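Complex record, four chains
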Amino acid sequence: MRPAILLLIMFFQSASITVQADDSVRALKEAAVASIDRQENDLIAMSNKIWAYAETAFGETQSSEVLASYAEQQGFQVQRGVAGMPTAFIASYGEGRPIIGVVGEFDALPRLSQTATPDKHEHVAGAAGHGCGHNLYGSASLGAATAIKQFMIEGNIQGTLRFYGTPAEEAIGGKTYMAREGLFDDLDVVLSWHPSSSSKMDVSGSQAMVETTVSFKGRTAHAAADPWNGRSALDGLELFTHSLNLLREHVKPTVRIHYSITDGGGAPNVVPESASASVWIRDSELKDVLVLYERMQKMAAGAAMAADVTAKVTLISGTYGILQNKEAAKVVHANMLNLGDIEFDEADQKFAKSLQLAMGVPDTGLDGSVQPLDLDPGEMSGGSTDLADVSWIVPTVDVNVATAPTDIPWHSWGVTASSGSPIGHKGMQYAAKVLATTGIELFLSPEKIEAINAEFKENTSGFTYKAYLPDGPAPIPASP
Amino acid sequence: MRPAILLLIMFFQSASITVQADDSVRALKEAAVASIDRQENDLIAMSNKIWAYAETAFGETQSSEVLASYAEQQGFQVQRGVAGMPTAFIASYGEGRPIIGVVGEFDALPRLSQTATPDKHEHVAGAAGHGCGHNLYGSASLGAATAIKQFMIEGNIQGTLRFYGTPAEEAIGGKTYMAREGLFDDLDVVLSWHPSSSSKMDVSGSQAMVETTVSFKGRTAHAAADPWNGRSALDGLELFTHSLNLLREHVKPTVRIHYSITDGGGAPNVVPESASASVWIRDSELKDVLVLYERMQKMAAGAAMAADVTAKVTLISGTYGILQNKEAAKVVHANMLNLGDIEFDEADQKFAKSLQLAMGVPDTGLDGSVQPLDLDPGEMSGGSTDLADVSWIVPTVDVNVATAPTDIPWHSWGVTASSGSPIGHKGMQYAAKVLATTGIELFLSPEKIEAINAEFKENTSGFTYKAYLPDGPAPIPASP
Amino acid sequence: MRPAILLLIMFFQSASITVQADDSVRALKEAAVASIDRQENDLIAMSNKIWAYAETAFGETQSSEVLASYAEQQGFQVQRGVAGMPTAFIASYGEGRPIIGVVGEFDALPRLSQTATPDKHEHVAGAAGHGCGHNLYGSASLGAATAIKQFMIEGNIQGTLRFYGTPAEEAIGGKTYMAREGLFDDLDVVLSWHPSSSSKMDVSGSQAMVETTVSFKGRTAHAAADPWNGRSALDGLELFTHSLNLLREHVKPTVRIHYSITDGGGAPNVVPESASASVWIRDSELKDVLVLYERMQKMAAGAAMAADVTAKVTLISGTYGILQNKEAAKVVHANMLNLGDIEFDEADQKFAKSLQLAMGVPDTGLDGSVQPLDLDPGEMSGGSTDLADVSWIVPTVDVNVATAPTDIPWHSWGVTASSGSPIGHKGMQYAAKVLATTGIELFLSPEKIEAINAEFKENTSGFTYKAYLPDGPAPIPASP
Amino acid sequence: MRPAILLLIMFFQSASITVQADDSVRALKEAAVASIDRQENDLIAMSNKIWAYAETAFGETQSSEVLASYAEQQGFQVQRGVAGMPTAFIASYGEGRPIIGVVGEFDALPRLSQTATPDKHEHVAGAAGHGCGHNLYGSASLGAATAIKQFMIEGNIQGTLRFYGTPAEEAIGGKTYMAREGLFDDLDVVLSWHPSSSSKMDVSGSQAMVETTVSFKGRTAHAAADPWNGRSALDGLELFTHSLNLLREHVKPTVRIHYSITDGGGAPNVVPESASASVWIRDSELKDVLVLYERMQKMAAGAAMAADVTAKVTLISGTYGILQNKEAAKVVHANMLNLGDIEFDEADQKFAKSLQLAMGVPDTGLDGSVQPLDLDPGEMSGGSTDLADVSWIVPTVDVNVATAPTDIPWHSWGVTASSGSPIGHKGMQYAAKVLATTGIELFLSPEKIEAINAEFKENTSGFTYKAYLPDGPAPIPASP
């Protein structure tokens, strides 16, 4: 152990010395920042591997393993396959309270394969891609956990640190299954972040959501010889999607509905016996989503009746809207200000501007600055995360860090490109530093953990978390 | 009475003299043809008046009166307002058997107003027009009845002649209400014709049909302020028509389905509380139409469920497919051959060709020739007539006569134009002659009536006619 | 002139006496309130007449005349038929500056006929109804103008007062035509109000809008005999509305799009040659609406191409988003607080609750209280008004007054019922008092007019108003 | 060589002996029938293997090899991979004229996996199945070719026999590529058959067809965060399919249009950048199909314009309507009468009836009888075959043989079940006998070949065959 750090930590452990505390904390944080800098090559290598694997929900075998192995190398105790999900794992260190969690994701999005170039070019035709930057997300979080662990060891800090490797965020929601299992129940605080096009401790929330599958079943017939003997499941599906699109006029502006057709029939000369869509519904609160979900079920039944087929609606998962914590947000924001802006260089800006032009948005480049903290923001923007379920169990931090150019559409090839480039890596490093310094501060500041939990208790008074999931285990697909 | 005709008639009434019969019948028919020629100005004037009135279903007050008055002037006994329909009437002459009916229609079609010119030019903006030539139909049939009546008087012929003025053929079906009332029950034969683009005694049949109204009911709201509080009846309707269009793939090629939207909502800034469509379904046989009708009711219910509104399907009327009579067809066809082709002149052909060019079909002009009689034709073409209901009660003749150029779409402005021009008038005169000579032949030939009825009995064995109508009187609209 | 009032007015006209001003103004306002109370029977009678006429856009012949005659009786100089619209008028009094305008509307909404009862019951089947309360609007505004005029006469007040009778607000936008004509150009302030379910000086704005007609043209054919020769305009229209509904996913939450089908084809047995819809698009700012309008034109063209028909998009009118004036709002709000809440009695509350239950909303009754003034509100609610065009020419007040129960959908039969009941009348009286007291205050306070205009100038700096209308006169329909 | 057969053949080769010819031919045919009976186990084994492989278009590697190997074992010279298609092959025997071809198919249909049981039960979940019986088709044809070859060897018959192993009939059309290559150009007659639910030499024809892919390209965005920045390719596709369904009203009853959605977007939280459908259009004649194909291209362009995306229509292949040959049909039909009916036993009937009940059709069982020959049939039924392209190059026989119960929908799990059961095997054996006896008869009867070719020449006078295919090689998919 480096003596200077030991000394600093001793300050805190002797409760009477508070005058010099601020300076000491600053120094400890600097040590954490240095740890992240030392890990830079490792983190970039990990994030690039996961970026190249580009594995989607519950298929993240290699991506998960990259992170779990690193955690083991860094001395964490790793439990793989938690909550019935092969790609979910928990890496632990230490014991006793406080218990602080760090969360990392690593799943990709279908069809967003793209090289790390600012012009559209598929990496692997038709393949998935990290259009949401989760390769950066998991790597930065694990880097942060590693730095915090070093601090705990060096400082002989009491408490428990857990890194949660959480799969399937883009679909289904791995954290919700972990939450149902109670894996977050004993935590004091959870730290997380998300790639974005700006750096902001945003407390405006996220949307609640249900993911469903809507399937139709008809009767085959030769589409040329005797189509009158067939009943087209696809007819049912197209009526259903039409009704969904009509519904858009009759929902509040906070609602989002989107779908893709996952089965649109087989050979055209056979009247389709089956057809299905994946449908997601979101609104500010889960209870409002559930009203629409019920209505959607009637829409499927009505469409089926009109097409003389049958319909089946299957719940995949439900997600709450996130509960932000303002006390925690203040700590995070201060750490961001301390760290200063992300320093994107000229090459980064050039890349970003080319990318912006290619995507048809203003070529304003990257914004590495720390956005002001607004503790009373207006309407939330669209989007959901299974981290929201965690946020109703334990006080949760979710901070945005810039890893992509301003204004480019999210869930796009442009984000995949950025997430495999130096832009993304710089954001990743920054995010790791934000989480590491915040984690250290919390371990050193029981009163802050207390304030955070007091706010949390007030906000969840009368509320009992219940995962909105179908019965049974997580829907892990069979191996290919 | 002209002695020659009297003499001829006496031939027939003395059963032993059959050798000279053919010549005599020919002479009597020539007298009938002469009668039609004498009526020419009257028939043209009547048909032009009805063409200009262009009154639609159950609104044919003036059109019906033109015909009823003429019948009275010609010595018929006229009973107006039969079967609860103000514009339906029966003009009778004579008594006892045989009883022969002649049918005439006179209603127009919405929106087909057009001047009697070969280029598209609305006569009255947005108004109805005789795009099916019923102005010619009613006038020719009444002209034929008048000629037959003269023959009966001059020949002191025993029997009853009835002219049926039948309203609302293009919608609802006036004859079906008359049929339900039993007004055709005691007839021996019914004679009718229809304007067409060729002259043919076609026995291939007509389609059965149901006419329905499909209405949706929702809930109003301000479409900008709180559309989420509204439930759009129009949404229900649009889903319903979408499902109808999807159904087209899954019906036999003999089926026809068509609709118009009769209520598509009011002010756009109000979420539509009501919306409705007029839907017609046809197939070769009524029983098959009814299967689809039932399915359509489910489609309306399903669409309503999907849009969270309510649906109501109302039966307007049902029509059978026509039952042709081959024995009768032979008599008619022979009379057509005797009459020879319609003689269209150069001006007619020029008009016809201009019209064809304006409608985008080959400019082949008019075809006045008599088409061959095919007693075993293939598939029927699309179209329905409430005369079909009559044809299941009494042997019925329905012959086509050319009143419009070849290949022009029916129910179009081109037919309106032709029906008000010399082309239409020539066809009308010809049709009157076909019906008159056929009627005379039947009055003189009990054995033909017998053969016709024998065929009819065989074809309807085991069948009991039942009008497929909603309970209650015909839906006469209130006066404006 | 009553001496007390004269005295009070003299206080103001002698610039040195300001100490007693407040009390004096209060007294003058009380006189205005008394004037409204004296007019009560007249205003109720006028509003009930207009309610019963229920005339829609540009057909408000009787409704307009009721108001214009009353204005004449009250000594205004009335100019009818301004800006080329027979039902638009201006009633003037006085001369010189300041010039203050009061605006009143009087058009009804199609299909919202309803008796003044809390259960749904059409007054005249299929007829229009005052589902937006414009019968109250015009009457209250004219009542206010009358009170202000009395004050001007009695106080020998310098300046000009104008009442604008503005037709066709619910469609087309009469004020926009008056604005194009320059009829508001010389005003200092315009006062207006709108019926609502709560009383609030709301400065959150209104939506910009374009109204359009989208028409398709195809080719007729017999829908059963040769539908393949037809090209259905209705097919084009249904594809177009489908594309409009798909667009809803891809617009910002501030956008509103709504339509009704105004021509959905004629007789079902004719392939529809024409079909059309009335389409309205709104967003916060006109420039954003115009982007969508352009996109909608492509949608119509694309739908037409897909259905092999032609499309035509016609601009009916464009409307700006309203520019509220906070300085004016403060004056109005203070007057509302002075007047206190609307006093709805037990019978009113009973009526309101029955109505709420019948419409399926919580039976919370009426809220007659004055809502707090929020000068920095969040998002505007949906809705547009042609008063917005006026608001970009002259500082404009638009205040909401409760005339209907809380939570009931606007543009509904429930609003028609309320607008013909004592509830509506009480709101109307209150609105008249708010406008009258505000008008008086402004005539007496040049510095307030100045402050209002200073704010206006700042907000409109660099902006030149241009009516977004098609060329040519207002589309006055031909007399029936 | 068996002396009896040799003797019989010698009869024919000596031209003078014609009296006993008929008997001799009968005996030779009996020898062919015996050959098929001897091959029974082999043919069943082959058909069952192909049934179990269930490989779809251009993936029939194992299925093709099963047949090619058998042909080699039987002494044919086999050329694999003809016309650039790895699974296409030609097995030849003999030399010189006449040249007679026998055609066999072996591809399966996606999603119709089913066990050989009369109740619905997938064999392999989601897999392909022989829902068109091509496992029987290829095996029977090769069995027939083998029998004919034996006859040629034993009789020292002059001429060439070719078996064509033709892939990808259910999609794309392998024969069309072989036809383009000229591989059928030198033939005198081609023999083929098809599994069916009755045994009939049907000359009513098949439909012409084009297969196309319609793809849309939009712009991704996060479907919850900023859907307004996305342009949905799926929107374009859904408008396109809607327009296709509307088109159904406006095509002749002979047309068939069907499609499946092959790409309906990826993750629902990404606005779909791509979407596509497989669309097939059929009508009696290729020229009419091409008119609709052109119209469909406009529909895709229109839908794309309406959804603000781009569309691309790709031709996969075109197929002619089949040209039947009546002279050949007479020969085939006579051979069927000679062979008598297929003898299905009680177990077969029981299986068939269970299957019929499970599919909701009347349980009338199997019909093994030979249907009458109607040389002047009415309308063709729906369906296409790439054999049609062959039929415009060389006189072609295409006879139906019962391999499945009456009335069950084709391209269904019921056909898959039948094709793997004794029912299918009996039909297969019968078909092999029909082709073998017909082939033998033609080799022995130059005058029949002449008559057949005379009819062919008359029917194709003025016609030059041109494959309607995109440029370039057949679209063989890359190996998995």
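Note: Chain B touches chain D through eleven residues (CB under 8 Å).
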